[in-house]
Design goal:
Layout: E1 7-8, H1 30-46, H2 52-83, H3 95-127, E2 131-132, H4 140-154, E3 161-163, E4 177-185, E5 191-197, E6 205-208, E7 216-219, H5 220-226, H6 228-231, E8 235-247, H7 261-272, E9 277-283, H8 288-298, E10 305-308, H9 318-321, H10 351-357, E11 360-364, H11 373-382, E12 386-393, H12 401-411, E13 415-420, H13 428-440, E14 444-446, E15 449-450, E16 453-454, E17 457-465, E18 468-476, E19 488-495, H14 498-512, E20 523-526, H15 530-544, E21 552-557, H16 563-574, E22 578-583, E23 600-605, E24 610-611, E25 615-618, E26 625-629, H17 635-639, E27 641-648, H18 651-666, E28 671-674, E29 680-682, H19 692-702
Parallel strand pairs: 1-15, 2-7, 9-10, 12-13, 13-14, 16-27, 19-24, 21-22, 22-23
Antiparallel strand pairs: 3-5, 4-5, 4-8, 6-7, 8-9, 11-19, 12-17, 17-18, 18-19, 20-27, 21-25, 23-28, 25-26, 26-27, 28-29
């Protein structure tokens, strides 16, 4: 099938509200707020009442989040400094000022994280029979067994690289773990430096059998360090230390240049491997002269070097988290298939008949993704009456049943159109692979609009039903990713409503063709009308608000960093509108300030599942409007991405959304409250603690 490389964005992009003057008293800093979110994640790892491997999971998530923060946010600030940019953040700080404050905060967080693992989680794991041991902690039999593993499986993969006048300093890849090794030549007595990359495709923790102290898992770098004599025969091994490098990893693509976006991104990914280093992590005890050598060769300042207790790269704790130890994990939760989509004694459900009868709201991970959204796409792929499937793909799993279904549909002769977002941050290579696989299977693959990422989550199915053609739609808040659907909280609407299916048809025509449609009936679409409509609804609620009947706005999202929407909410608050914001991550809105935001309240819920859905409610009573979709209140979502919010009109589904919001505000287990001074405080548990997520699990299994 033909492949459409990309399409130019519609020219009729909405007018933006002017950006107000910066002020530290008006907005909170986005970068600091992001670090505060990671602080809340770390607090879950510190919770002594949580299951042990759940604590280890959050320690791994903290490390992953911090890696991405440096790859994207810190790298972006450093790029501004290098370019001499003088613009300031909404709270009035230059890039250099933000970097200085970030460094101070990160050092405290990273040290706290490393010490938590060394002094708390690691000993607790050992008591539970999961001993993460150093080489010297092993007895002779365990060392012998691991030495055999080293010789058979690790040694052949290793490549020691000397650094001397004849051997330049090697390239250090992003997030790779390495050993800095000092060896001494027995003849000349000279000390020489070498680097060894710890192979990323091997397990990070090796199981040691036969240990007299009980079984143990030994970090791979520790096994390599203990066997360096095999790599440097005839040399004396002086010392070795681990280190790790983080590089700028946010693609800088001008997709208005060149003819093939896929080739452009592939080339940029190749160049990105040599992008600027933004952080150097070294093992405690590494000598200053070795740190100086690494910093000089990596062209990194001393302020970007972090000395931490080993092991480094604790994102790899996922290997320990995934061990089969249910006694150290939360009680497993099994999602439930919505009643309207559940199989019956007669066989599998007819999902299309169910959607003709009523709209269905699915709430993951409580509602089964496999039994709802995935089943919808799989039934469409196998149904001979289905003529076409059109779908956006932003992220999906490594083994994707969604992609497999689309390939089967194309093989069956259906028209399959897939918009693959090649610029999905940190998933670019995976999406290139999916794009090629779908193309080879005969799907029409589209790469989206020039200058915009396509972030909306939409699937359209076109079906022949007698003499008529009927359309069915799924539109959601999360990716078509079966794995994350088990741990991310998301919402989706399945419907055959003609107004919505007509809107989605026009949206795909914008994405794949030359449509210039600028208004929709049941959708709000960025960058076409989403910002304008959000501001209009906020202003409308402010105009309706009275002292006797104050207006109400409730928003649940991942991040709130848009100053235009923040200003609109400040103005609404000054008219008495009650504004409730549930923001999982960064938030620049400063709540509870006299004369500015007295009626604005901000909370965050960080728990077992990643709160990921977006719900927007405007108004009270029967006049309320409910919207769900893919967009956060961020300038990139409102102005530089294709996003879609859908209006939920069924009273029963509105009631369900309202109950989610109410229960979130009642949470006293995993909720945090943002204060006017920018600090986040835990919401007191009270006598009878309430947990949003546990209550939704209970409601799901008891329904």
């Amino acid at each position: 099938m033909a492949t459409v490389a990309r399409r130019r964005a519609p020219s009729a992009v909405e007018a933006r509200r002017p950006v107000p003057a910066a002020g530290s008293d008006r907005y909170l800093n986005r970068e600091f707020s992001t670090l505060q979110f990671n602080d809340r994640v770390l607090s879950l790892a510190e919770d002594p009442d949580a299951p042990l491997l759940e604590r280890a999971k959050f320690a791994a998530i903290f490390a992953t989040n911090l890696d991405e923060f440096y790859q994207v946010r810190v790298a972006g600030l450093k790029r501004q400094v290098a370019a001499g940019t003088t613009t300031t953040s909404p709270d009035g700080l230059t890039a250099a000022q933000q970097l200085a404050r970030i460094d101070r905060r990160v050092r405290k967080l990273a040290t706290r994280h490393a010490r938590l693992f060394a002094d708390d989680i690691r000993p607790a794991l050992a008591e539970a029979g999961i001993r993460i041991a150093r080489w010297d902690d092993l007895d002779a039999s365990a060392q012998t067994a691991l030495r055999e593993t080293f010789n058979d499986q690790i040694f052949p993969v290793l490549t020691p690289l000397a650094v001397d006048p004849g051997h330049p300093f090697p390239y250090i890849s992003n997030l790779s773990l390495n050993l800095a090794v000092l060896v001494r030549d027995q003849a000349s007595r000279r000390r020489l430096f070498a680097r060894i990359k710890v192979p990323p495709l091997l397990p990070r923790f090796l199981y040691a059998e036969g240990n007299g102290h009980g079984p143990a898992w030994v970090p791979l770098e520790g096994v390599i360090a203990a066997n360096l004599d095999e790599l440097f025969p005839g040399m004396v091994i002086a010392e070795s230390w681990s280190f790790r490098v983080t590089r700028h990893s946010d693609l800088e693509i001008d997709d208005d240049e060149g003819d093939d976006l896929l080739e452009t991104i592939e080339e940029e990914l190749r160049r990105q491997r040599f992008s600027r280093a933004v952080r150097l992590e070294v093992e405690e005890g590494m000598p200053d002269h070795v740190i100086a050598l690494l910093a000089r060769e990596l062209q990194i300042g001393s302020g970007d070097t972090h000395e931490l207790a080993a092991p480094l790269g604790l994102a790899d704790l996922w290997e320990i988290v995934n061990l089969d130890r249910p006694d150290l994990k939360p009680e497993p939760f099994h999602p439930v298939i919505p009643r309207a989509l559940a199989p019956t004694a007669e066989g599998p459900p007819d999902i299309f008949a169910a959607l003709r009868a009523e709209d269905i709201l699915v709430h993951h991970p409580y509602d089964s993704f496999a039994g709802s959204v995935q089943a919808f796409i799989e039934q469409a792929a196998s149904d001979p009456s289905v003529l076409a499937i059109k779908q956006t793909l932003y992220r999906t799993s490594g083994e994707s049943p969604i992609v497999d279904a689309l390939i089967r549909a194309a093989a069956a002769g259906k028209q399959v159109v897939v918009l693959v977002e090649l610029k999905a941050r940190l998933d670019e290579e995976a999406n290139i692979a999916w794009a090629r696989k779908l193309e080879q299977a005969g799907c029409h693959v589209v790469y989206g609009l020039i200058g915009l990422k396509t972030h909306c989550k939409v699937c359209l199915v076109v079906r022949q039903e007698g003499a008529m053609v009927r359309r069915y739609v799924h539109i959601g808040t999360g990716n078509y990713h079966p794995s994350t659907a088990r741990i991310y909280e998301d919402l989706g609407l399945l419907t055959a409503d003609e107004r919505l299916t007509d809107d989605v048809t026009h949206l795909f025509n914008v994405l794949t063709g030359y449509s210039r449609r600028s208004e929709y009936d049941a959708l709000m679409v960025a960058p076409i009308n989403l910002r304008r409509r959000i501001l209009e609804m906020i202003d409308r609620e402010a105009a309706r608000s009275t002292a006797r009947h104050p207006g109400r706005i409730s928003m649940k999202m991942n991040a709130f960093v848009d100053v235009g929407v923040a200003d609109a909410l400040y103005a609404a608050s000054q008219r008495g509108v009650q504004v409730d914001l549930l923001v999982r991550g960064p938030c620049i809105v400063r709540p509870g300030v006299t004369g500015l935001s007295e009626s604005i309240h901000v909370r965050s819920i960080v728990g077992r599942f990643l709160e990921h859905s977006r719900i927007y409610r405007f108004g009270t009573g029967e006049a309320s409007e409910f919207w769900i979709g893919s967009a956060d209140m961020m300038d990139r979502n409102l102005d530089r991405r294709v996003e879609a919010l859908v209006r939920v009109e069924d009273p029963a589904l509105q009631e369900r959304l309202d109950s989610i919001l109410d229960l979130a505000w009642a949470d006293t287990t995993h909720a945090w409250s943002l204060k006017a001074d920018g600090k986040w405080n835990r919401v007191p548990r009270g006598r009878e603690p309430i947990s949003l997520q546990e209550e939704l699990m209970r409601q799901t299994t008891s329904a």
